[in-house]
């Protein structure tokens, strides 16, 4: 049987109708994973208990207890814990760290009989937008091996795009699900902040982090989101609920669509808007006056939270240790040698913006502007039901192109970080390709909904897939 272009909904039907076994289905993705890994550098580890996971899932199906996710092969980002398995966040400092408990989101999938093929590569501790910051090598783009996968969820995304998994769990703090999804031509959802538990996700910036699904279709992403969402007593920030899902109007912050946006990427976006309009949605210009400050605010608040969260990796509380001549020398050696440059840059930046005398000027001011940005969205959503903009200003860039220029790299997040700052959900859906050096590279439209408005994203997203 040909498993190419399979989606979760199609695969689970095949499994439940007994047209294929879990072993056959997972076998296809596993063989790909094994044969393609040296080329793309997707998996940091392919698990050794897949046979047991398969037989557990098959038993569930045979007993009539299967759900749509039973037997579906997933990749998991290396910063989400599964008890007994290594989770390194692609960092040397956690190279041998074995998780002592399972993340709520992963557990919910395991309870439904989903299969985890392996842990996938990422930017170290999710800090980056290209997976070049992994301590274990860069992941390559599914459409062009000389280009980046995007990041930080590069491994999980390329796993899905190259049929080395049928779906994946990633995390998104400033765009880490949506941007790689866009670079690799698949769908990624950053859920409402708190709608998916962060329990068992290694914290990067706790007020922005969220776990979310990566898959081949909007329907698949919806299936996974419905399985992993919900209140969790182990994460007090979790929220539940839904808002009315009718969508008639879509707002576009036109004034913002300028900076660094490639003309052909913009053209694909305009074409998509045209199609949505034809499908009956009213496209309206909106104004989000404080959007210009999102990157500045993000790159103050995020490192501040990073610096606090990273304090635990000192070789004593967590992580590998390098001994020094005394305690302080040991700290310096451990953190100096086992953490990557970008992680250290953000710890230093974050410590600076939080330091006495500067906290008011930077950190507290950034929080005030964050509130203005939130208000902008609340106001815009009084006028429109959804907001649309491109996911990324460019298609996938070349490996090494931005690696030595952090500011250029940070600019790549210009269309994604606002959703994390405002806490609202956003989905990235492929909307075309652009030609670069002989390769056709995917681009995406991003749809943004109010708090707990995921259903709107799924409704319009699924429609868009039929008209694009
Ligand atoms: N690229 C962004 C950053 O470097 C987003 C990362 C993320 O979402 N984890 O911070």
Give a structural overview.
The protein has a single domain (1-468), classed as Amidase signature (AS) enzymes (Alpha-Beta Complex), CATH 3.90.1300. The chain is 39% helix and 14% strand. It contains 15 helices and eleven strands. The chain has an eleven-stranded mixed β-sheet, sandwiched between helices. The longest helix is centred in the last third of the chain and has 25 residues, at 359-383. It is globular and about 65 Å long. The protein binds glutamine. Residues 126-129, 152, 172-176, 204, 302, 413 line the site of glutamine (GLN).
Total domains = 1
Query: What are the low-pLDDT stretches, counting only 5+ consecutive residues below 50?
Result: none
Q: What's the N-to-C terminus distance?
A: 28 Å
**CATH topology (fold) name:** Amidase signature (AS) enzymes
Structural class: alpha/beta
Mean pLDDT: 96
Which CATH top level class fits?
Alpha Beta
Total number of beta strands: 11
Ions, cofactors, ligands: which are bound? glutamine
CATH superfamily, please? Amidase signature (AS) domain
Query: What would the principal axes of the Cα set say about the shape?
Result: globular
> What strand order characterises the main sheet?
1-3-2-4-6-5-10-11-9-7-8
Amount of helix: 25-40%
Largest sheet: 11 strands, mixed
CATH architecture level-2 label:
Alpha-Beta Complex
Number of helices: 15
Give the topology string: H per helix, E per strand: HHEHEHEHEHEEHEHEHHHHEHHEEH
